[in-house]
Every structure is written in C-alpha cells, then in structure tokens.
Amino acid sequence: MTTTQSLAVRRAIGWLTRLRRTRRRWLVPAAALLGVLTGGAYGLLATPEYAATSYVIVVPSAKSDPAGAMGLAQAYGRVATDIAVVGDAPVAAGVPASTLRASVRAVTSPDAPMIAITARAPEAAAAAGMADSVARALVQKGSHTEGSTGVKVLQFTRAATPTGPVSPSASLSALVGGCAGGLLGGLALLVRPRYGRRRARYGSVPGPGAQPAAQAEALV
Predict the structure, then answer these.
(1) Of the ranges 38-47, 152-161, 197-206, which is most confident?
(2) Four-point Cα dihedral 62, 68, 74, 77, nearest 10
(3) Helix (H, G, I), strand (E, B), or coil: what is residue 93?
C-alpha cells in the first residue's frame, strides 16, 4: 500500500469516527424531538374525554344498624353498573348498555355509606347524563328493597356538566413524549459505548501470517 493510499484510508477512518461521534451527540436531542412530535400529534388527534360524577348515599332507618348501611353501600357499589344495565339507565342516558357498562365506574367510601358514580364520555353532557342515570337506577333499586334491607338509597348530588376534558392536552402530551424520547435516547447512548469498550479491551486476534510478516519487515 502506498503512502497516498494509506493517508486516504486514515482520512476515511477519521471521517467515519467523527460522523459516529456526531450521531451519538445528536441522539438524545433527536429522540426528544421525535417524542415531542409524537406526543403533540397524539394530543391533537385523540378524542377529548369528559368525566362527570354523581353521588349516592345509603341512609339507615331508625330501627336499622348504621353499620349495616355501610355494608349495603359497599354491595350497591359493586353491582351499580349491573343494576343500571338491567334497569332503564341505558334508555335514560341514550346510550347502549355495553357503552354504559364500559364508561361508568362506581367507587365506595370506607368512611361513609356513599357511592361515587363517575362516567366518561366524548361529550360533557353525555357523561353527566350517564352518571345521573346510574344514580337514579340505584335509587329505584333501593326503594324496591327498602322493606327488606331497612335502608334508603338517596341521590346525594347530581352530576355537574364538566367544563373541560380530563384527557391530557396537546402540550402535556408533547411534554410527556419529549421526556420519554429523551430518556430512551439517553439509555441508548449509555448502552452503545459498552460494546465498543468491550471490543477495545479484548482487541482483535492477529491472523496466522501477521506476525511473520512483521518480523520480516523488521529484518529488512
């Protein structure tokens, strides 16, 4: 190999090394930018979701035990969606029974005989309507079984129509996407140099003819 060819090879290797370093340097910013774009696009294209909550309270009668009202509140909370689907709640809310079952969640309180019924929907009025319809279904069920249970089921508060969505905005989605992209880029940057250091530590094994050739050059 001539001197000119050797210099050309060294220049090519140096250029490739600088290119690799540049790529590593821009890996984290590029990943963060990609995450920002992806998160912002998701926030803009995703359908906004609204949430509304209605509260139902279980009141014991004069002859019943207050602890029994707590237990019945827990029981009503577990079967709230089933009672609503069987009743007229889907018709009152104007949605199919499957949508009502999938969009409504009932949560009970460990300190009070109260049930929080939360509905989520793409429209604010629909979310409030579903929450109130499930609450009314529980009240009707409680009035039918009041003689045997000894408690009354009353709607404590109606669901207020939400003024804003609970789904993340485009700016928040872009921020989360940027953080996730930067984190993934940093992890990739930390993992890649290990392979290079491992190769440098062990080195390359010379071929069978490498040592004799070097010795012949030294003798000349």
Answers:
(1) 152-161
(2) -40
(3) helix
